[in-house]
Each structure stands twice: as structure tokens, then as C-alpha cells.
Amino acid sequence: MIEAVGLTKRYGAKTAVYNLSFQVKPGLVTGFLGPNGSGKSTTMRMILGLDAPTAGHVTVNGRPYRQLPNAPRQVGALLDAKAIHGGRSAYNHLLCLAQLSGIPKRRVDEVLGVVGLQDVARKRSKGFSLGMGQRLGIAAALLGDPQVLLFDEPVNGLDPEGILWIRNLMKKLASEGRTVFVSSHLMSEMALTADHLIVIGRGQLLADMSVKDFIAHNSADFARVRTPDTEPEQRDKLSAALTEAGGHVRPEPDGALRVTGLPLPRISDLAHEADVRLWELSPHSASLEEAYMRMTQGAVDYRSTEDQRAGLHAQPPVGYAAPPGAVPGAWPPPQGAAPAGYPPPGPGMIPGQANPYAAPPQVPQAPPQGAPGWQPPQAPQQPPATQQPPAPQQSRPAPDGAGAPAAPTKHDSEDAR
Domain 218-296, what architecture? Predict the structure, then answer.
């Protein structure tokens, strides 16, 4: 079991963790949640004795981590999957850890098989992908067959098969009576994996309860109601009836209604009394992500804003007219399927771009004589009589007989005489 009492950590003027108290009990997968910068990694480092708390204390199985005899045999942790010497193979990396902790050599092959790295055990870890490095870090945490395990973002870089594997692995470890403490930003994974949640924000405890209770306390269930789309007057009629009965009605972007404060049977009865046909009447329960966002919305330090792209787009050339089917005001033409009117792309061209080698547009032909709009052709203007054509430039013979010599001009012949 992990127990923190009044845990506080300050870095100069910044307080990363403040008066944090909680228990991580065996037999459960306990999720550790919080926004970026909330102090989750700092808390895990203090549990493992890597950082000394400014105030308070934290114990593992009743003792501080540094006082545990042969701690790697009792506590396994994955905090940074990249904390590996790149020149060592996966096998040698685990072998070094095993020899330092008095773990039998055969255990190295066992954990390599558990994480699925037995085929690359002799390869240097610097060539591992992010997911392979994550598996190697998990193998290091399992090396001593510990009773307490800490994982910081264990699914980072794993493929779907790897995510399913680590999810089942953590559940299996907890079912064996071990203490499993896992930090993650993936709410969907926590909803499927964790049994209990500890949520912190800005270094302070926000929640310490089961996943089911957390969702129930931080979300409001609602009913989704839809009337025929072709009859908007029925939606307005139902909305008025539900509001009069004490419900709270909010329109959805797709035309449906979100109703809170009334159970589904009551909504159905009100619709029947108002003679309104329903196309949909379904309950909706909030997800862990929705409950988490609702609780931590006031403890987020880093908020994104909308991207203001004004002035960043290239302007269309003067006289440009969008072809039929193009998005109005879109320039340059989007990549992908070219709108109607664009020539087909040639070899090596990006679809959707105009072909620079396409034939020039044909000049419209003049109407035949006698047709409406016909005008007699105008004679070309002659240059003034005084204007003389420019004198031709003198040609010089090519050097070294590279070409035939030019014929002498009149002036050259007179000079020769």
C-alpha cells in the first residue's frame, strides 16, 4: 500500500504539491489524474525517493522507499521509458538491473517474453521505437516481481494491441493482490482500466473515490429527444411542454433536444399529451472524460485558444474566378480531388493543382460575316515613311571552325578593296 500524508513540495517560489494526502490500496487499479503541471510526476518521484518532500511524508508498505530492504524487489516503477543506455541491448539492460538487485538471470528472459521483446532482446535499445521502449520500461518494472507497481503514462506509444495488453496486465496484477498506481491522460483508457481514482489539480487533492462515484458526482445525466425534422413546430411545441413541466431544455446542433430534470417516462407522457411524434428518446450517461473536464476546468494552467488565421492565407490573383464546384473564397485550390473545371493532373503533379504545362486557352473565334456582332477587319497601321528598319547586326565567323563563316556584308567588301 502507498500512503501520503500532508505531502508538500516546493521549488523555490513555486509550490508543485501542497498538503496532499491519499492512500493507494492493494487489489485495485488506482488511476492518478490531473491536468498538465498539476504535480502528478512530482508526487510519483517523492513516492520513489527521487525527490525529498518539503513537508509531510509518503510511505510504501509502511516505510519510506529509501528504507525498504532491496527496494526493486518490492516496488517496480516506470517513470521515463527513455531512461535507457542506447548502446545496450534490451537483454543487457535488464541483466544489469537484475544483477544489482540480486534477481536471478532467468527472470530476464521471463519478462522479455511477458512484454513481447524476446525477438529483439539482443538488439541495441537506441534503435527501438517509442512503443518498444515503453515495453522495455514495463519489463524493467516487472523484473523483481514486486507487490507495488507505479506506471506513468504506460500506454504512450503503444499500438492498439499493446494498449489492450497493458490494460489486461494491470488488471491481472491487481487481481493478484498487488498495488497498481497508474497515471494517464487518456480518459477512455482510465474508464476501462481503473477501479479507483485520485484526481489532483494545481498540487491539491480534488477527488479520491471510485470511478462510478466520480462520474455520478461530477456529471448530469440527460435525455436526448428528437422530433420529425420536417415539422419544426412540433419541436417547439414539445419544448414548451417540457419547460412548463419543470424540465430544462437545450437545443443540440443537429436539431435534437437535450432534456434534464425529467425522467424518460415523464418525457414520453408529456409528448403523448401534447400530440407530438418522437423519432428518438434515449438516455445519456456522462463519460469519465466529461466528468473529469467538469471537475478540473478551474484547475487548468495551460489553455489553448482558437487559431486566428487572418492574413496568413495567400490571396487569389487579380481576376481569378473560382471554377464550378470550388469552395467560395478558397485559394489556393485545395489538395485532393480537383473541383470541376480543373485539368487532370499530369505525372508528378499534386491533385488539385493547376497544370503549368496545360495548353493555353483557345482564343474565341470572331462571328462570321453578317452575324450579329460582326465588325469589318481593320487594316494594320503602317509605320511612318521616315522610320527606317534597324540595321542588321554584323555576323562574325565562329572560332576554330565551329560553324560556317558568315557571308561578308557590303561594307566589308568595300573595305577590302
Answer: 2-Layer Sandwich (3.30)
SS3 annotation, the chain: CEEEEEEEEEECCEEEEEEEEEEECCCCEEEEECCCCCCHHHHHHHHCCCCCCCEEEEEECCECHHHCCCHHHCEEEECCCCCCCCCCEHHHHHHHHHHHHCCCCHHHHHHHHHHCCHHHCCCEHHHCCHHHHHHHHHHHHHCCCCCEEEEECCCCCCCHHHHHHHHHHHHHHHHCCCEEEEECCCHHHHHHHCCEEEEEECCEEEEEEEHHHHHHHCCCCEEEEECCCCCHHHHHHHHHHHHHCCCEEEECCCCCEEEECCCHHHHHHHHHHCCCCCCEEEEECCCHHHHHHHHHCCCCCCCCCCCCCCCCCCCCCCCCCCCCCCCCCCCCCCCCCCCCCCCCCCCCCCCCCCCCCCCCCCCCCCCCCCCCCCCCCCCCCCCCCCCCCCCCCCCCCCHHHCCCCCCCCHHHHHHHC
pLDDT band at 326 (very low <50, low <70, confident <90, very high): low
pTM score over 0.70 = no
Q: Are 9 and 46 in contact (CB under 8 A)?
A: yes
| Numbered ranges of CATH 3.40.50.300 in the chain | 2-210
What rounded mean pLDDT belongs to the chain?
82
- Strand pairing class (14-24; 2-11): antiparallel
Q: Which residues of the chain does CATH 3.30.70.100 include? A: 218-296
Residue 365 pLDDT > 80: no
The CATH number of the structural domain formed by 2-210 is 3.40.50.300
Partners of 15 in the β-ladder: 10
Q: How far is Cα 149 from Cα 2, in angstroms, rounded to an integer?
A: 10
Per-residue confidence at 278, pLDDT binned at 50, 70, 90? Answer: very high
Of the candidates 338, 344, 368, the residue with the CA atom closest to the CA atom of residue 358? 344
Per-residue pLDDT of 231-250, as tens digits, reads 889 999 999 999 999 999 99
Strands 248-251 and 257-260: antiparallel
CA nearest to 173, candidates 76, 70, 62, 45 = 76
Burial group, residue 288, by CB count within 10 angstroms (0-12, 13-18, 19+): buried
